[in-house]
Amino acid sequence: MKKNIFLFTVLLLLLSSCGSVRNFNYFQDTVAGDNSPVVNAMQTVKIRPYDKISIIVSCKDPAMATMYNLLSSTNRVGSTSAQSTGYGYISYYTVDENGEIDFPILGKIAVAGLNRNEIAVAVKKALTTSEQGLKDATVTVEYADLHVGVLGEVKNAGIVPINRDQFTILDAIERAGDLTQYGNRKNVKVFRKNGNSVDTYEVDLTKFKDLCASPVFMLQQDDVIYVEPNKVKARQSTAVGNTILTPTFWMSAMSFAVTMVLLITK
Hints:
Blueprint: H1 2-24, E1 52-58, H2 62-66, E2 82-85, E3 88-91, E4 93-94, E5 100-103, E6 107-110, H3 116-129, E7 138-143, E8 147-152, E9 158-161, H4 169-175, E10 183-194, E11 197-203, H5 208-212, E12 224-229, H6 231-235, H7 247-265
Parallel strand pairs: 8-12
Antiparallel strand pairs: 1-4, 1-7, 2-3, 5-6, 8-9, 10-11, 10-12
């Protein structure tokens, strides 16, 4: 009798351990040599109305280039309104509601729906075709305030800046310090603003192939990722909590059962 109860207890503990690993590991459907296509692999971050960008024009004649750079007259400590360059402090352009920026001398330039490289090409084209333009201009475009939000069971929740043209959900989670042990890896939500509404997506971080096929694998600015707590964290809010799931609880319970059986049989 004792032997059977002991073996049953060990089996329960092993099954509990296996279940914990399945809930904790990422990308459980992958093996070496797998190839998981990304459905929107060519998608890049596109500029939208009210985004901020910096545009720096340079050429052989610095004085000519200065005419086309939006210089800031002051640079305050802690300010995010300008960045230092060889031409001074360059202010950021805020894209207006029509998707345009008001560029020095050249006037309005449409940038909404374009990525950084496409904006640089559009500005350079405008410079070279203008009567007062620069034939040898080099144009550099940088994001100024593009970001996503990461909330819930991650180590460093908050705003994560976008610093590349292709920014994935894995990039955002990495910047947030990874999920905590209490994060539900099987149901991570992504909220994306779409006009006057917000679309909700769910991704499973244990299934890499499905993740690559998700429309939110490649993130857009202002996306919000929410990692909900797993059942272990949720049970911590109750009086009994996770006590019933601990090995100590089951060993004590089995020990009590063995004692009762012995007392009854005697």
